[in-house]
Structures are given as C-alpha cells and as structure tokens.
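Collaboration report, partner site 2.

Our partner group contributed sequences for two proteins of shared interest, and the home lab folded both. The records are reproduced in the order in which they were received, starting with the first partner submission.
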Amino acid sequence: MRKLFPLFSLAIMATVSSCLQKMPNNHKTPHNFVLVKGGAFINTKSKYYGQAGSIPDFYVGKYEVTQKEWVAVMGSNPSKFKGDNLPVETVSWYNCVEYCNKKSVKEALKPFYNINKNKKDPNNTNNIDDIKWTITINEEANGYRIPTQAEWEYAACGGQLSNNYTYSGSNNIDEVAWYWKNAGDKYLTGTWNWPALVSNHNKTKAVGSKKPNELGLYDMAGNVREWCWDWHKSNGADDLPGRIWKGGGWIGAEFCCESSFRASHEANGKGPDQGFRLWRSL
C-alpha cells in the first residue's frame, strides 16, 4: 500500500474517460451490470466535486468479480478465502487486465487491452514490479475493462442519484461495508491493529450481502479493494509508481472505505483483500 498523492484534475480524467466511450448503446445491459448515466460529480464529498469535465455513460458490474466467475474464465482460483460467491482476491493488476480480455474473447466481444508480455513498459520504474507488461487500450473495443479512478469514484458516489454519502450508499459504514471492525467473528472496537484482525478471523464476505448504493451497486465500500486503470506517479524515492485502488477492504480502516479515498500498489502486487470489478464502455 502506498501513501496518498495530489489529485489530478477532473478535466484530465474526463479526457481519459471520454476516450473509453466508443460503442453505441445497441445492446441490452449485460447481466448483473448497471447502466450508469454520466455527468458531472454532484456528491459534495468527492474530491472531484466542482471540477470541470463530465464522466461518460458506462456499464458497471453490480458486484465485485466472484471466485466462480474467475474460475469460469481463468480455470483456477488464487484466493485465500475460498467460496463461489466470495470476491476473487490475491489477484494482481495484470491478472485482472488479462481476465478482462479472456472474458471478452469468451463472449465474442472485442478485447479492450493490447497486452505485450515480451516488451517491458519503459514508463514503469517500480523496481518491485518484475512483470512490467506493456499494456495499451483498443479505443473502439466493447469488451470488459477496469475503470478509471474518476469513473470508479463517480459510481461509488451514486452518480446523478447521489445523496452525498461519505461511504458508497450510506454515512453509516456498517450498513454498506465489510471492514476491519465487522468482518470477523465479533465486532471489534478501539483502534485498528493487525493481531486483533487475525484472532478475530477477519475475511471476505459473500458479494451483495450489505446494502447497495443509490445505483444498485454492492460492496463499493469494503470487502476487497478494487483495481483501477490509472497510474500513481512517483513523488520521490520512497513513493514508488503503481496502479490506483479504491474502496477499502475487510482489512482496511474506516477512512480507506470512503468513496473519495485512493491509494496505490505496484501492479504485480497481490493480497487477500485485493480484487476488482468489471466495467464496459457504451
């Protein structure tokens, strides 16, 4: 996990997102997806609120990708906590991008990513990341993908239906999130500490078992952290570049589960609280 960093302007992120709005909406909303109407951020607690730019329409999965879904595409299960309806975890950013392409091919969709495993990405200077695949996007593709951080936050904040919640769907974290206090045998109190989580048998929970947000999306706060497309740029020797994650997880403290929070991890990083959610462009 990496420290926080200065926020890019929404105008820049909206430009990136607009490149992803390529396909006309000639199809029904995919199963277990939600069609989200784009626009400007109206949630006043978002760091993007009041900035110029607009998020395009998109499809987003109601749930985090489950282990059953992962195995159906990838053939094996990397997760520490096993269960068909538990979110897949212990997956790197590269694993998730590869899953998106394989699922797209399986469903006769055009893969969104160009993945070159034989060429090291010259822009990836993270010395912990020993993979460094060069990955670019197919701008006209209708296949599955992971979101930009702006898209993720827009969806978590409720889009144009936002009620200005701090967490995705509520100001009461226990209504919507599995996090360090409630993800184990009993409800923990006091300050966060790892030994307490271990002895409490904290773990992931079945997707969709908490209250959804205004758009009908589940677990955008807590359960597992969710990978995004964007880079976190290095701000010095102690701040390595990586890919952004959002949403907190069963390990995380309350502030990690806030919709506006973001942090990063090296793209080859894995953990039992690291998963993802699927997006598709219109």
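Second partner submission, folded after the first:
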Amino acid sequence: MFELNNFFDNKNMKAIDKLGMFTVFEHERDLSVSPDSAVTAYFSSEMNVRRRQVYVTMQDSGCTVQAGAMQWMLGDVNMGSGIKGVGNLLGKMAASAVTKESAVKPEYSGTGVMMLEPTYRHLLLVDVSEWGSIVLDDGLFLACESTVQQKVVARSNVSSAVLGKEGLFNLSLTGNGIAVLESPVPKAELIEFELKNDVIKIDGNMAIAWSGSLEFTVEKAGKSLLGSAASGEGLVNVYRGSGKILMAPTA
C-alpha cells in the first residue's frame, strides 16, 4: 500500500484530461523561479506555456512509453524492453531510423502508478479504436496502452514523401486502447476533418495525424502546373477516401 501526499490535493496541479489509464496534469505556474526569471515565468503561465505530465494508473495492465519518458513509478510495476530477440531489435532500429522515434520503447506492466517526464508540448489522449488505424507525424508518440499495436507504414508513392514533406515512413497505431500524443498546438486549435468517400487538399504539412485508410498524394493546386504556380499555391497535400484527419492550422 502507498499514499501520495501533496499530489491530488496540490493546488498548483490540475487534471485537465483523462481517458483510460492516462490522466494529464498541468502545472498552473512555475513555482521554482528566481528573481531573474520571474517575469518570464509569469507571462508564460498567462499565455498557456505550462508544464504538463501524464499520470498512468495500472491495474494488472501495461503500457508502452517513449524511451526516457518515465519520471517515477510506484507499486508493483515492472519494466521490460519490449525486445523479443536480435531480429526484433534490428527491426526496431530500422524503424527508428526512418520514423525518428526511439528504437526501444520500454513496456511497463503490473499494478501501480507511474508519472512521465514534464513537457511544454500539449498532450492529446486518443482512442485508437475510433480511428481504426491512426498514422502519426514524426515525434508525436509519447505512450499507449499495451493493447495498441505499433507498426511502420510506408507511403504509397515517393512523391508524396518528397514533395509533401511528410516523410517516407510513419508510425501507425492500431487496435483497442488509448494513445498519448505530444501535439505542437492545444486541442482547442486542432481541426478534425471526417471524410466519407471525399477529398481534402491542404497547403503544407499541417496534418499531424490521419486515418490509415486514407490515400495520401501530392498534387497541383490547380488543373495545370503553370496555373498552380501563378496562383501562389503550387503543390498541395491531398487525402482521399474515408477517415479522419487532425490538422494544426497554427503550427
């Protein structure tokens, strides 16, 4: 048995979101400041520049976490490497090289609690089953329940990666469970498009996550390359089919 003091009753920490085993806490103010940094800390808090952390509650369950993200764990919680032999390690290293994700993501299991390292990025809790399959932009993955499967997916054509500036490979999540994503913008600024056998064209790589069922290509904004250049739009990222897209319009 254990107790957490000055945690749930800490007036400077606020639970802002909860889904599954994950709870997102936000530090309302930075209290560890010096006279030289007090002004910066004050205005940072006023402008929503705050530290956020993920609190994980495990009841005979498990989760996978980005390497180096664990701050502390309490109770009967054990860590595994998630590596199942030399071949599996080589595969993970290859996937890491093309997706910019850590090669080894530790797996924690048991009964207890765990806190992840603080970050200034915005933390999104996503139910993977609602997407069927969700493809992530590089660097978005932070954690997921152990029931979520990870794999690397490649673009259907090279032009989509080179011209669309999205990368040739991306991390894809499937299965039933919750994932934690580190977003460059808060949830309030994200736009979610839900396509039903339709198409959307986005000028730039503002899509941070999208359904694996969507076809991604890069095309001219207009009917001709000359017309597209004259309009100042040039090439756009095009998503076709049925599925969802999360776009960060202010990133």
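Feedback sent to the partner group on the second submission included the following. Residues 13-29+37-247 form a domain with the Double-stranded beta-helix fold (CATH 3.60.160.10). The first helix runs from residue 38 to 46.
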